[in-house]
Amino acid sequence: MENTRCFANRFSDYKGALIPGQGAENIVVATIDKILKNVPIDVRDCDGGLYDGPAGVAYMLYHVSECPLFSEHRDVYLKTAKQVIDVSVRYVDAEPDKNMRAAFLLGGAGVYAVAALIYKALGLADFVKPLSKFRNLWDVCAPINFLECGSDELFVGRAGYLCAALVLKQKLGFEILSRDQIKSICQAIIDSGKQYAKRKRKPFPLMYSYYGTEYLGAAHGLSSVLQMLLSYQDVLSEAEKDLVWQSVDFLMNQEQNCNWPPELGAIIERENELVHWCHGAPGVAYLFAKAYLIKKKPQYLDTCIRSGELVWQKGLLKKGPGICHGVAGSAYVFLLLYRLTGNSKYIYRAQRFAEFLFTEEFKAGSHSVSSIYSLFEGLSGTVCFLVDLSQPDKSEFPLFSVFV
């Protein structure tokens, strides 16, 4: 029976040699040209934030401009990035719903964060403007029930706000929020998770829901919430840290054959399983990578390695080239594993997935994507991956810092 979610992986596995230089620079430049001819730069087209709006294209241009291989394009890419992000900033400045302004991947917080990075890269002193707009959002998401649909997840909730602050700290080299601000947001996440787990009589200390669903994956679920709490564990009390680690181990035990169901308690149907960054092992792996980097326990690394094996088998996704539920998102797991282990096998596997993106089989058999130029669903995310494949020691899934 043909798998409806992924292509068969017909590549032979690593035999000790990488694929010689794939000349990705030309492909990257050509793909960027194509994206820029088609990306809408009108304030009416700025919905979708970093996820599938033009702001994500601006981030991609910033990311490419940071890579030495593309230094001759740096100025043009950064100036274009500024044009695109400025329109997105105008759009979110006018957003009447302050909760949407505080959203990371779908709203204002992410747009302001990326604007600050682009301005700083251009040497503009007024990078502090978007930065202070970003900082002023912390008190929007600090109250425990700031969003009815679920206050804590990555796209619009508190975990996302912390994630944006982490990216800023990593790229700018200083902490954007005060210790007290970070602490109050972490506190709200923990209190919210404790209350939910207690109310729903969960056998573990922290749980969350988004629109009534108890997601586990990186997009809206437990794994990225816990990942952010680990990223800021130095502001937590010993008792709070304990709750977080108990929850990490609880999630580790939810594994079914190297994968995680999209929601708590679901049984994975093998022929129909989700192997995506958003739902499943390719996103959950980042939590266990973070856990391993902190505690150095081999079982956390083993969990990441098993995720990588599943991705090698089932990660050539038919849903397109993107990072959320596409081939580039799968391939980023190999770059993560390379950074954790130093094993070149993972660079080879990422190379093979990159190669597959340009085959006739992929072009003919993958689903058409409505936002084909976007960061999370389309080609901008693919460009970030190809750039990172050329510098694997610095590679990292876009806007999802593990190595901070």
Automatic annotation (TrEMBL):
GO terms for biological process: carbohydrate metabolic process; peptide modification. Keywords: Membrane, Metal-binding, Transmembrane, Transmembrane helix, Zinc. The chain crosses the membrane at residues 102-122. GO terms for molecular function: metal ion binding. GO terms for cellular component: plasma membrane. Zn(2+) binds at residues 278, 324-325. Belongs to the LanC-like protein family. This is LanC-like protein 3. It comes from Gouania willdenowi (Blunt-snouted clingfish). The gene is lancl3.
